[in-house]
């Protein structure tokens, strides 16, 4: 349908003008544009000077212009994306997943360069992704699970990261709707998820990337058959979870064990991240806190060491500070785990 219908649709959007600034509610346009084009729509609005703000139920496009001008810009952008096609016919192919070969190649080069002992886990992950399986990485703190998730996020075209520790079913649905197009769904801290938050995941992982959501009386259907989910979890006892949720979820995920890196690998990781040689005393500190030092904490310590040395701090002072960082973190994590 043509420009007349575009104008009618845009006129139906909620708009508010205040002191020359126009705010437009645009999330409903995902039904018209489709997931891929909705992503492009938001990107184009930013290029035209809009800023995008999100709440749980709404997405606002805000521009420092009168609403008459904002309306004209939005109509032009929508028409350019529709390309003369009718509503609901916008090209879903605009939502293009990253080629699996590019993802797996990057995983190998990025992760194994930093932590070689992850070779078997990464190899298993690559095979499962190529086979179309969803996976869960199981390992203790500091084993490299988040490093793997970060590598996928870096290379994927449209990754969506969700920290399951504070996620809700409605929140996950809103994130997916807002993203519009997802090729890799990255679920961190799956072991801390609340049972009720798993409902949309069961749909996505069981129906070839299809998700049907009803919001405010309107049904939204998303189809992402290329979707791959990669979750990360610390070791946990699934028996303490509701079998109604967890048994079906774990049935959809292939478990891959991620080993703890050795002392040598942690030091090598610190040197690779900073491109600098670590002082000899670092080995003693790493050995003392082995099993409690995450890769993220090791990276923080390494960057601190290099910067402190550049500023002329003595090695004794630097060592004392790094030990304090590790000790404080270790005590905090211990307190949290027993609280």
UniProtKB/TrEMBL annotation:
CDD domains: AAA (cd00009)
Residue stretches making up the AAA+ ATPase domain: 131-260
Protein name from the UniProt record: ATPase associated with various cellular activities AAA_5
């Amino acid at each position: 349908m043509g420009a007349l219908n575009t104008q009618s649709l845009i006129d139906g959007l909620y708009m508010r003008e205040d002191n020359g600034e126009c705010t437009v509610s645009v999330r409903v346009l995902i039904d018209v544009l489709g997931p891929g084009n909705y992503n492009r729509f938001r990107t184009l609005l930013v290029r035209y000077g809009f800023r995008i703000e999100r709440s749980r139920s709404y997405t606002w496009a805000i521009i420092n212009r009168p609403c008459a001008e904002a309306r004209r810009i939005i109509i032009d952008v929508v028409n350019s994306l529709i390309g003369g096609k009718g509503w609901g016919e916008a090209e879903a192919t605009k939502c293009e997943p990253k080629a699996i070969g590019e993802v797996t190649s990057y995983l190998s080069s990025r992760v194994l360069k930093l932590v070689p002992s992850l070779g078997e886990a990464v190899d298993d992950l690559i095979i499962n992704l190529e086979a179309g399986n969803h996976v869960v990485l199981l390992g203790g703190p500091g084993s490299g699970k988040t490093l793997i998730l970060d590598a996928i996020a870096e290379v994927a075209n449209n990754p969506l990261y969700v920290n399951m520790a504070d996620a809700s079913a409605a929140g996950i649905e809103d994130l997916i709707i807002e993203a519009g197009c997802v090729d890799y769904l990255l679920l961190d801290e799956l072991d801390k998820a609340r049972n009720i938050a798993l409902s949309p995941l069961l749909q996505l992982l069981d129906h070839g990337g299809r998700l049907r959501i009803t919001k405010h009386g309107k049904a939204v259907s998303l189809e992402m058959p290329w979707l791959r989910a990669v979750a990360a979890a610390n070791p946990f006892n699934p028996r303490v979870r509701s079998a109604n949720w967890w048994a079906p979820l774990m049935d959809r995920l292939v478990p891959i064990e991620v080993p703890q890196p050795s002392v040598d690998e942690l030091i090598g990781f610190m040197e690779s991240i900073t491109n600098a040689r670590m002082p000899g005393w670092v080995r003693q500190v790493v050995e003392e806190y082995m099993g409690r030092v995450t890769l993220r904490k090791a990276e923080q310590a390494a960057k601190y060491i290099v910067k402190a040395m550049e500023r002329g701090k003595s090695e004794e002072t630097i060592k004392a500070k790094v030990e304090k960082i590790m000790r404080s973190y270790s005590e905090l994590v211990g307190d949290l785990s027993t609280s």
